[in-house]
Write a structure and sequence with these properties.
Elements (H helix, E strand, L loop, with lengths): L1 E5 L5 H13 L3 E2 L15 H17 L2 E5 L14 H12 L2 E5 L14 E2 L2 H9 L9
Helix pairs in contact: 2-3
Length: about 140
């Protein structure tokens, strides 16, 4: 299955680990943002636009969109900005399946047909095995 991994950029290393785990299970990861070496410098509109177009194309190429969300009481609870929220909304229309790993963060996460899982391992079992997702977050 082709999978897009979405999370806040500071979680890129964690997403590379998730990618490696899923690839070892025979899946293809369409997202590449987590492999970017992004220096902390101001970027041009041209570069940002290119990243946006790449990310949307990679989402369209995926069968499954996995959104890694933040705990409401975590240190990052206030870090609600970011393209990952727009990516999730785009994925609802662009991919066959989508799910959340972590808590729901906004209203679209409560839409019918959006399973929620506590960990990537539980999501893997539910999506590719026999277990059901935790729908009572």
């Amino acid at each position: 299955m082709r999978i897009y991994l979405s999370a806040r950029y500071p979680r890129a290393a964690e997403m590379r680990e998730a990618r490696d785990k899923l690839v070892a299970l025979g899946h293809e990861i369409t997202s590449t943002w987590h492999d970017d070496d992004v220096p902390d410098v101001k970027r041009s509109t041209f570069v940002i636009r290119a990243w946006a177009e790449r990310d949307l194309l990679e989402i369209e190429q995926a069968d499954l969109f996995v959104a890694f969300t933040e705990e409401p009481d975590s240190i990052m609870a206030g870090a609600r900005r970011g393209g990952r929220h727009a990516e999730f909304g785009f994925s609802v229309g662009a991919t066959r399946w989508h799910c959340i790993v972590g808590p729901r963060e906004h209203v679209i996460h409560y839409a019918d047909g959006v399973p929620v899982f506590k960990t990537l391992d539980v999501a893997i079992k539910a999506q590719f095995g026999t277990e059901e997702g935790d729908d009572d977050e």
